User: Fold this.
Amino acid sequence: MKTDVVLAGVGGQGVLSIAAIIAVAAVDSGLHLKQTEVHGMSQRGGAVQSHLRMADRPIHSDLIADGTADLLISMEPMEALRYLPSLAAGGAVVTERAPLVNIPDYPPLDAVYAALEALPRVWIVDAEAIARDMRASRAANVVLLGAASPFLPVAAGALEAAIGVVFGRKGEAVVEQNIAAFRRGRAVTAAASD
Amino acid sequence: MERFVPLGNEALAQGALDAGLSGCYGYPGTPSTEIMEAVQRSPEAAARGVHRSWCANEKTALEAALGMSYAGKRALVTMKHVGLNVAADPFMNAAITGVNGGLLVAVADDPSMHSSQNEQDSRAYGRFALIPTLEPGNQQEAYDAAAYGFELSEKYAVPVLVRLTTRLSHSRSAVARREIQPERPLKLPANPQQFVLLPAISRRYYAGLLAKQADFEAEAERSPFNRYEDGPDRRLGILACGITYNYLMEHFPDGCPHPVLKIGQYPLPRALVARLVDACERVVVLEEGAPLVEELLRGFPVETGRVHGRLDGTLPRAGELNPTLVGRALGVEVPASAYAVPEIVANRPPQLCQGCPHGDTYRALNEALDGYARGRVFSDIGCYTLGALPPYNAIQSCVDMGASITMAKGATDAGLRPAVAVIGDSTFSHSGLTGLLDVVNAGAPVKVIVLDNETTAMTGGQPSPAHGHIEQVAIGLGVPAEHVRTITPLPRQHAQNVAVIREELAYEGVSVIVARRECIETARRRRRAGA
Assistant:
């Protein structure tokens, strides 16, 4: 068993927090793990990505080779498109619907959605809207993680426990809010991915 | 088992702490910053009172680490690759003095320049200084390199360079911790002249360092970081340095059919290399950064045509390697991308945050300079380097830490009047003070704008070394007090700020304008922490 995941987004959207939660859940589930992060200049509102690799045997490369990622999770729809060369044929894409427009030449949104919908397995999720509806705007990343969770090789319970580990120092209320956000996100895709 | 899934940087830090580290020094810089941050976060380090503060720059950091070593204790100093240029003086000379307590110089290189101005390869410095260099290939090796490196350092009384690259520094994997060693006691060098590099003494020590080279190579021959793995198909042999071993093995999950020499300790083990080259028809050299090993193997002037790598196009000459590039170089079948990037995808370069004080300063500066010909604003290393991009287009240089002030001085020497130097508060403390002294002594009409956001923002908000006394420092260096001005970069102060900058541009002498407003990121973090 081996699952390679590319996480994408814009600096400040909480991509590294999603990566950290999956990483903790994978290790606590007894899987081998490698996870790369982007630090430094790109975190200033630029495109960021993280590679996450999980397997039941030792993993060599820290990077995922082009054309081999099983899953692409993106906090932003155009950023999902940027990393398509990583995706294996037929790989799954779970992306936020709301664009983050911080550049003057952001493409027309309908063209972005059309390019996404041309892919064989894509879920465009209203994670931000769901989080706002829960009065937890900052948990949009965890809503998206919930939506992507049926495609991950770790159980939902392990991911919820990992949310407790990663957000634990922010207090019980934050942990509970994020677990609720995770469940709302998971409900979006749970049926579709069976 | 306890969950320990560190970044490569954190693994090295924990390894050093577990090996009895007494002092960690450094200057923040991507991709090295998390080494010090891990030591600073560590409850064990706090309980033991391990010294763990950022320094004014990499040179002062390395010198302080050398002082800790002088006193008999184990010290670690961290920096990014270009930081080693700043610390090159103590680095080269510490190789001559040697060490008392173990000294590790941990340098993180940034091939592909993810967050840097070049991709220089620190292994060249290790070779230049004639000291052993470790290049861990995974997180466990990064952890193990600390204890092993300290022992090597103390056994031969030399500093040991630990070279990391971005991908290992910023990638996590599980690591097993080993035995925890006590810190070393205070113990001065047995030879009171060990650190006195007068010429006659230096010549003796240099001869000693040269004499140790054979020992260093013998250590590399039996190092656990260097490993020969035989394989039946000898048409090809592979020499894989550091993390490239992972990219290689990714293609052979059930074992590589070709002989492989994994390298993680230098100087190169000549016998192991000879074994590989003798056994195989062709050798491909995989190394992150410059083709240093490949050049050694190719030799000069003999070109056998059997060694391949970055120099003959088998691999790209520049940039970070990855499994795809390595697979192609070996002639392995590599998966192709199934989907291309759609043409509509636009670049999303990093940019100043909404509400960043630097943006307000650049708007004021651009307006104040309206009427002067363009091309007179020199700048420096930090978030504010993004002022070179639209919508600001405000600066025309970014070369190395502190170069804004000194390049502006040189340009005024050439007749450009006035010239402006835009430099961050942390960079000003790191390498701006001596340059400002040159400007004052020359009476050059350089307008220094210190963008004082009261932190080292680019690397995540570390303390800024001259915080709280930038104006006094400028006056102390000889800038006339009436030309040391302070402005608050806020939209509502715009007209006033433009006026201040214009007044100083009109003055035929050195001016320092401190544009002070806290970084909005650190301000937000502080509010949250207080809430």
Q: What stands out?
A: The first strand of chain B starts at residue 21 and ends at 26. The two ends of chain B are 35 Å apart (CA to CA). Residues 421 and 448 of chain B are 5 Å apart (CA to CA).
